[in-house]
Each structure stands twice: as C-alpha cells, then as structure tokens.
Please model this.
Amino acid sequence: MRIAVIGTGSVGQTLAPAFRRLGHDVVVGTRDPGATAEREEWASTDLPLRSYAEVATDADLVVNATGGDVSLEALAEVDLDGKVLLDVSNPLDFSAGFPPTLTVKDTDSLAEQIQRAHPEARVVKALNTVTAAVMVDPGRLAEQTTIFVAGDDPLARESVRQLLSDLGWVDIVEFPTLDAARGLEMWLPLWVRLMGNLGTADFNLRLVR
Amino acid sequence: MRIAVIGTGSVGQTLAPAFRRLGHDVVVGTRDPGATAEREEWASTDLPLRSYAEVATDADLVVNATGGDVSLEALAEVDLDGKVLLDVSNPLDFSAGFPPTLTVKDTDSLAEQIQRAHPEARVVKALNTVTAAVMVDPGRLAEQTTIFVAGDDPLARESVRQLLSDLGWVDIVEFPTLDAARGLEMWLPLWVRLMGNLGTADFNLRLVR
Model:
C-alpha cells in the first residue's frame, strides 16, 4: 500500500518507518522538505520527504500525524479527495500548561472538523488513544490492550483495521460512525493525567467485558 | 462506619445495600422519605430513609449517588461540613438523546462544582467510571480492572480507598488533586459509546502498564 504520513514530529517519526517495515511504500509530508531534511532526526533516514501539495498524489492511505493544533491548517494543503485519512491526532491545547485542555470536545471532534473540511475524504479515527511507541508496537506492553477505530465509511475502517492488525493489534473495537471520535479524543484528559501519575506514556487500557 | 447514601435511583439502590453487607451503618437520603418508602424498589427494604436535611447528621462518609443533573440542588440541602463526600455521579446531559453530552468538562468538573458549593466538605471522586453493579462487585468481570480515586484531602482519599478495597477493588489508581475528576468524568463519552457498542454496561478498563 502507498502510505503518506503527514507530520514530521515524534508521531510521524515513529509511524513512517513502522509502516515501511511492514512493506508499505511510505512518503512523508512536510511544509518545507528541504528544511526537514536538514533536521537531525530526518538526516539519517532515506524516507522520501514531500511537500503537503505533492505528498498524497499516489497515496492509498494518508495519515494525519500532525499536532492537533495545526492539523486543519496542514491538511488544507493536502489533496484528500477519495483517500482514506487515518487521523491519529488529538486536539490538545497546552497554552495554559499541563495538563492540556481540548480545543474541541463533547459535541464535536477534531476528526469531524477534518471531515467537514474535506468532505470527499474518508476519515477514520484510530491510534490517538496511545503514545506513538505503543501505536506501532502494542506488544511492548505486558498484556494485550485495546485499540479503537471510528469512521463512517466501512471500507475505510477495514483498511485501517488491517493496518492495525499488521502492527500487532488484536483487540480492535470498531465504531461505525466518525462522531465516536468525540469519545476517543475525550479519553485524553484522563490519559495525560495517567501519564503524569504513572511517570510514563507506556500504558494503555485493556477493555474487560 | 456510618454512611449516608444520597439518591434513591439505581446507583443508590445498589450502593446502600452493598455498604450494609460490608457491616456499615447505612442511611439513605431522599427528598421525600414518605414518597420513596412507597416505591416498589424501597418498600421491600428496611434501609432507613431520611430527608436530605437530616441524613448526614451522624455520617462519617456521605455518598453522592444522585443524577449529575440534580446533584448540586440535592446536596444543597445536605450538611456536608467536615464530611468526606464520595462523589460517584456524572454530569450527563440526555436532553438531546443518546449519547449524552456533558454539562461541565475540560476546565471544570461536577466534583469541583460540588466542592466549591461545599468548601468545608472533603470531596473525593471515585467509582463514576463504572456501572453500579461493577462499583460494588468488581469480581463480576472476568479480570481485575482499574478504579480511580481523586481528591485534595489525603485522609478522605484513604477512607474511600479503604471502602473500595472492602468492595473488592485491588488496582486503585489515586490522583492527589480533585481536578483529576475532569479526566474521570470525560471518560464517560467513550464509556457510553462502548456501552452502546458492546450492548452491556458490564465492562471496565484494566490499566496495563
């Protein structure tokens, strides 16, 4: 599969090589490919860097790995029409320090904002409930844990589900509508406090039923 | 311990007898004890019913088991000064149907609203993250799961922690400030969607770290 990862922060740095290890053809989208190529974390990789405008041209699946505060702006330059967009971002607002608050919640979500901005995209929310290292390696935790997938398009959800399965996720709980992203994003206020309390981001919930 | 349970809905109906089975001296607070005594669910019990004004007089611990939409109004009639108040409620707003939204969130919580209305109470948030049957019987789930305690007063947290332990809770994660209730209450938007998705309220999260 041809995957375009948008965003060159810690999430993009973790997801892009992980998808390539799975055998996918991965390109990375960044505002200024020349500037990104000079950054220490990217200088040592041969992952192709592309401008936002070019990155999604041939992609089967696009991943929003930008920070939630800049996602709408960054994606505005990406052609998402007809593409599956896996949104792993969170609408965290750190402007008042830690713990962050949410810029959107309860009656709306960042995933839905992205969907409205790109009506022809097939947005799927997933992976936003765990730290990047766990996203790509659920086995690093001591037990199997649970991951969620929410989206309106069944085939788009299935594409994402397959990708999660390839990453090692077994307990995948699927929501058939994108507005379930409200619940997934509103898990973050507890998640960030647990991170502070536990002193690590290496944790996740296991749904026991 | 003398425990006053405020609220006669399904949560109060579950918590009050469970606390008595543990050997505690339990009274139940209701707006109109005479009317409540005639309701089918209460006619068959000998749990003492008291008005809000009288229920907390001798209590060591008061439990807010009222609906989140009426909690502030109900508790306004209860003398909570110096008492440990265990708040198990959630600020759910069902006025637009299912799934509910939250009446307070992100930068505030129902627990903090209650604390501000009763500055001399020692408010502790706990148990709001699971359905009533699981609150009092965590062993009904197939595996040990996790419960949370948040409050500013260390001794009040310890009282609640002991009570949870007596109910069978083992994995108790404690937050040292009441504002962590924001995270605990914001778990509900995911919880209610999981309930809809799984077709049962008999579930909980197990924190894997």
Q: What stands out?
A: Chain A touches chain B through 35 residues (CB under 8 Å). The mean pLDDT of chain A is 98. The two ends of chain A are 34 Å apart (CA to CA). The longest helix of chain A spans residues 154-167.
